[in-house]
């Protein structure tokens, strides 16, 4: 149904988090907030990629998307609230997410699959 990709400069993202302490609460769920900056940058890239996969609609809350780590380390995307309200009518039944961070850059790709 949709594909999104995004990249984030890890140092610049870390500086933004340091400059604006409330930013962690606005962008990340309670389960994500205490991760290292490189992991937060990758998760933010995934949330941006998610928005792109949905066609970049307005009104999405970043905390309505959570990237979780499975037992084998594979990331998975879980959506609620504003994101579900956009995805459900589109028939999206599965999410695929890939994260990476290297060389000071975090990147993520999200695929929204319709049923």
From TrEMBL:
The keyword Manganese does not apply. It catalyses: apo-[ACP] + CoA = holo-[ACP] + adenosine 3',5'-bisphosphate + H(+). Coiled coil: none annotated. Keywords: Cytoplasm, Fatty acid biosynthesis, Fatty acid metabolism, Lipid biosynthesis, Lipid metabolism, Magnesium, Metal-binding, Transferase. Pfam families: ACPS. One of its GO terms (molecular function) is holo-[acyl-carrier-protein] synthase activity. Mg(2+) binds at residues 6, 48. It is found in: Cytoplasm. SUPFAM superfamilies: 4'-phosphopantetheinyl transferase (SSF56214). Its cofactor is Mg(2+). The keyword Lipid biosynthesis applies. One of its GO terms (cellular component) is cytoplasm. Residues 2-85 form the 4'-phosphopantetheinyl transferase domain. Its EC number is 2.7.8.7. One of its GO terms (biological process) is fatty acid biosynthetic process. Transfers the 4'-phosphopantetheine moiety from coenzyme A to a Ser of acyl-carrier-protein. Belongs to the P-Pant transferase superfamily. AcpS family. This is Holo-[acyl-carrier-protein] synthase. It comes from Actinocorallia herbida.
């Amino acid at each position: 149904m949709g594909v999104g990709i995004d990249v984030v400069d890890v140092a610049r993202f870390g500086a933004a988090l340091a400059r604006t302490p409330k930013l962690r609460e606005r962008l990340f769920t309670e389960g994500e907030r205490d991760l290292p900056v490189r992991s937060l940058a990758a998760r933010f890239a995934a949330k941006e990629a998610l928005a792109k996969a949905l066609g970049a609609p307005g009104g999405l809350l970043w905390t309505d998307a959570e990237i979780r780590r499975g037992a084998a380390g594979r990331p998975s995307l879980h959506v609620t609230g504003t994101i579900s309200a956009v995805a459900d009518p589109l028939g999206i039944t599965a999410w695929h997410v890939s994260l990476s961070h290297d060389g000071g850059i975090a990147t993520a790709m999200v695929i929204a699959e319709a049923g």
